[in-house]
Design goal:
Elements lengths: L1 E5 L6 E6 L16 E4 L6 E6 L4 H10 L6 E7 L14 E4 L3 H8 L3 E5 L5 H13 L4 E3 L3 H5 L14 H5 L8 H8 L3 E5 L4 H11 L5 E6 L2 H14 L5 E5 L5 H11 L3 E4 L6 H6 L1 H22 L3 E7 L8 H15 L7 E7 L1 E3 L5 H10 L4 E3 L5 E2 L1 E3 H11 L9 E4 L5 E2 H11 L9 E3 L18 E4 L5 E5 L8 H13 L3 H11 L28
Parallel strand pairs: 4-5, 4-7, 5-6, 7-8, 9-10, 9-12, 10-11, 12-13, 13-14, 14-19, 15-18, 16-21
Antiparallel strand pairs: 1-2, 1-3, 17-20, 19-23, 22-23
């Protein structure tokens, strides 16, 4: 990077030096009495606030980043004993005690914090003081922070009370019901490497299953949860099965050999915008993956099948929601065909799951912010991952009389903007207009989700926090014909045809990017009955 040196008295440039790779940050010695300035002159003025051990890494970042050149005004260190740690080309402007004076005199555009993430109290104090000065404070991970893992892990480890973010107390686990569901039984969890699947595995493992079968098509995901359980609960019998449940024939063979007694089916594609662009993949994984496992469970007489569903399946506006709705209808249709008890558990968003809002916001903060919110009006139901998993497992112990559709009571919906503001305050950041950016709703997203259809009457169950749908089941004789038509559309790799079939199957499926897809026919139940042409 090109540094121009400014004479302190005349403010005129006196010479320049091209910083070579590997050169010492103390060079050049003959410019020790001058101030460094990066080019071009239009770039922002930086004030570096650094802990002594983090200072060399921070200066190396600034010296190597030609694409993001900035004028370094100088350095504030954390205490007087550290002022000597500054190289000659990055003048020391004092210590943290001098922050207000230095900001008033130098008027920096950005404060860059190079402080180890473990020093959370110090970082919070610096951010508060910068906020009072209207000075944006960006966090620069130290070398130790970066070696710890992904960008989000380099964020200062503030304790975040998820209960406070949700806005209600988390319900306790009923250990008796969990034991009733899993103790002494062979338990299979599909999608065991995902956020919910992994939490189901952790919970079930603590209650002495006869065998815990972890199934996922992601080798990394299944390896991690298997490794974790091996370290934390090494005496629990378990199997890690690398398998894609969409393969119906192999799924049947797997279940024949494993003979689980209860299946928690968590495997699914969950990302709404991504599934809008890949409708055939959503149908194959969410509908036919569910069908594959459910059909095998029915054929083998497995005791219990519990499907994890979503609030996005109610009046779906997205491909993901529509495919989950069809999966719901399919497994409900199986309850009259054999001895296997089929149930589904429907709930909304879980805080902290992979690629959900909290990890995304954490990564955005680690990169200096701002954090993003799609729409100021958008609301969602939220629950913590352990709470959701506990209620799912407990519902697996309910008797036949409780019904086959369970909805988790998630309290009142939370405005995403309010959640973002709570998240920022938990990180000692004032949630002003500079800290949050509105990006607009993405394809397929609703402003407000629903946990049940208007016609679905919900009643309490013996489990606090679990409601049961009561009423006459929907007519589902058409479901086999619908799945056959969708399978043919997926085989032809025609996304428009797949979308048309989805809309034909589900009259309530509207909105999102599908509003532009023409539908030439709307199937009646008779038209898509088994064997219909």
């Amino acid at each position: 990077m090109e540094f121009t040196w400014i004479d302190k008295d005349t403010r005129a440039p006196v010479s320049s030096w091209e910083k070579a790779p590997g050169s010492s940050p103390d060079s050049p010695a003959d410019h020790a009495d001058n101030e460094p300035m990066t080019a071009p002159a239009s770039t922002p003025d930086l004030l570096l606030i650094a802990e002594r051990h983090a200072l060399p890494t921070a200066l190396a970042h600034l010296g190597a980043s030609e694409a993001h050149a900035a004028r370094l005004l100088g350095v504030l260190t954390l205490d007087p004993t550290e002022t000597g740690a500054c190289p000659r080309w990055a003048p020391s402007l004092g210590t943290l005690d001098d922050l207000e004076r230095v900001v008033h005199e130098t008027k920096p555009a950005i404060a860059l914090l190079a402080i180890p993430a473990a020093m959370t109290a110090c970082i919070a104090q610096v951010r508060e003081r910068c906020a009072a000065l209207n000075l944006p404070a960006h966090y620069l991970p130290t070398l130790d922070d970066l070696l710890a893992g992904d960008p989000a892990s380099a964020l200062p480890a503030f304790h975040i009370d998820l209960n406070a973010l949700v806005g209600r107390p988390v319900r306790d686990v009923d250990a008796h019901l969990v034991r009733q569901a899993v103790t002494g039984k062979r338990v299979l969890i599909t999608g065991a490497g995902g956020s919910i699947g992994a939490e189901l595995a952790r919970l079930c493992a603590r209650f002495e299953p006869e065998d815990l079968i972890l199934m996922d098509r992601s080798d990394n995901a299944i390896f991690e949860i298997d490794r974790e359980l091996k370290e934390t609960l090494p005496n629990v019998p378990r199997k890690a099965i690398l398998h894609d449940v969409v393969d119906a024939a192999l799924t049947r063979k797997r279940l024949e050999s494993l003979r689980p007694q209860i299946i928690f089916h968590a495997a699914a594609h969950k990302h709404v915008p991504l599934m809008e662009d890949h409708p055939a993949e959503a149908v194959k994984n969410n509908l036919f993956g569910t069908k594959s496992v459910a059909d095998a469970a029915l054929a083998l007489g497995i005791e219990r099948f519990v499907m994890i569903s979503t609030d996005k399946a109610v009046n779906p506006t997205s491909v993901m929601g529509a495919t989950k709705r069809l999966a719901e209808l399919y497994i409900r249709a199986l309850n009259d065909r054999g001895d296997t008890r089929f149930t589904l558990v429907r709930f909304g968003n879980v805080l902290g799951s992979a690629c959900s809002v909290l990890p995304i916001w954490s990564a955005q903060l680690a990169q200096g912010g701002p954090i993003t919110v799609t729409d100021a009006r958008m609301t969602r139901y939220f629950m913590t991952i352990p709470e959701a998993a506990a209620l799912v497992v407990q519902s697996g112990a309910l008797s036949d009389s409780a019904g086959d559709v369970f909805v988790l009571d998630m309290g009142d919906p939370v405005r995403i903007l309010d959640l973002a503001q709570r998240f920022l305050r938990a990180h000692a950041i004032e949630p002003d207009a500079n800290a949050i950016t509105l990006t607009g709703a993405r394809p397929g997203e609703k402003l407000h989700e629903e946990l049940a259809y208007d016609a679905e009457e919900l009643a309490e169950t013996p489990i606090p926090g679990v409601l049961s749908w009561v009423g006459r089941a929907e007519e589902t004789t058409w479901i086999d014909g619908a799945t056959a038509r969708l399978a043919a559309a997926c085989a032809r790799h025609d996304p428009i045809e797949v979308l048309g079939e989805l809309k034909a199957c589900l009259p309530e499926f509207t909105g999102g990017s599908l509003a532009e897809i023409p539908v030439n026919r709307r199937y009646s139940q008779e038209a898509i009955a088994p064997g219909a042409a």
